[in-house]
Amino acid sequence: xxxxxxxxxxxxxxxxxxxxxxxxxxxxxxxxxxxxxxxxxxxxxxxxxxxxxxxxxxxxxxxxxxxxxxxxxxxxxxxxxxxxxxxxxxxxxxxxxxxxxxxxxxxxxxxxxxxxxxxxxxxxxxxxxxxxxxxxxxxxxxxxxxxxxxxxxxxxxxxxxxxxxxxxxxxxxxxxxxxxxxxxxxxxxxxxxxxxxxxxxxxxxxxxxxxxxxxxxxxxxxxxxxxxxxxxxxxxxxxxxxxxxxxxxxxxxxxxxxxxxxxxxxxxxxxxxxxxxxxxxxxxxxxxxxxxxxxxxxxxxxxxxxxxxxxxxxxxxxxxxxxx
Length: 324
Known about the structure:
Residues 3-121 form the Gfo/Idh/MocA-like oxidoreductase N-terminal domain. This is Gfo/Idh/MocA family oxidoreductase. InterPro entries: Gfo/Idh/MocA-like_OxRdtase_N, Gfo/Idh/MocA_Oxidoreductase, GFO_IDH_MocA-like_dom, NAD(P)-bd_dom_sf. Residues 149-245 form the GFO/IDH/MocA-like oxidoreductase domain. The chain is of the alpha/beta class and 324 residues long. It folds into two domains: 3-122 and 275-295, Rossmann fold (3-Layer(aba) Sandwich), CATH 3.40.50; 123-272 and 305-322, Dihydrodipicolinate Reductase, domain 2 (2-Layer Sandwich), CATH 3.30.360. It has helices spanning 12-21, 37-47, 55-58, 79-85, 100-113, 127-136, 161-164, 166-170, 173-183, 198-201, 274-288, 298-317; strands spanning 3-8, 27-33, 50-51, 66-69, 90-92, 117-119, 143-149, 186-194, 210-217, 222-228, 236-243, 246-251, 256-261, 264-269, 321-322. Strands 14-13-12-11-7-10-9-8-15 form a nine-stranded mixed beta sheet. Helix 1 packs across helix 11, helix 4 (79-85) packs parallel to helix 5 (100-113) and helix 9 crosses helix 12 (298-317). The radius of gyration is 20 Å and the shape is globular.
């Protein structure tokens, strides 16, 4: 069965998704749209697809069986809602937005529509992450630590806090999501942010170059997260979970899992392409109508966004923010 795929947005992350879809025989990209008409036409030519004149042209159930929404979060407007109301299965990149109330309203419409959809928290699709989640089931822990250190996104809009939410909301969101996925929900957060190095990169930037978060979990555990988009000399990311009788670490964006317990020490490194696994899961869901293979939906992604935006608010207001 051939699935006709449309793309709204043809930037870097969209191109990466397109590469994965090329590996799936039943996937056929038929329509692409981007505000940059030249980029859309160039991408379409390389795919044997057609460059659409508007997002509305892509969101046409008679032309596509599913759509990928890959425009920046501040620019999505009603795209997911339109897809939902028209009954078009959609995949949307993370984060879901920068306006929490807007995203909550979208979540309600999407839920009521019943449309099949997925959110791009791709690290969940590593088998090592699934192993970590299974290991931690009903296993008490008291401390979690996470970090996301690296460089900046090249786009100008990304360096504006009101457009991207900053490194925490857009990039370290993956580590936040891993914590939620394997360890459970957050309860409250207190955050501090710095802005001492970012202006060396871009004098007009309004995002923070680093952040330090402390938080509590619904389980009663406490934790911390450090993040920076100006740490290219020593990049890396980890999620660590400490129990009284075990230690678990996910590193390399979830690809490598380390567990120490009474049984000894073991390390696993995934051989899977998580992006390809994510694409296969979405398309199989579209083909079958079954949601079982989709590991993150809109309401789940909303919970990750709620935490990162709560942390931003905490840093601004200099107070502990509770998660509702």
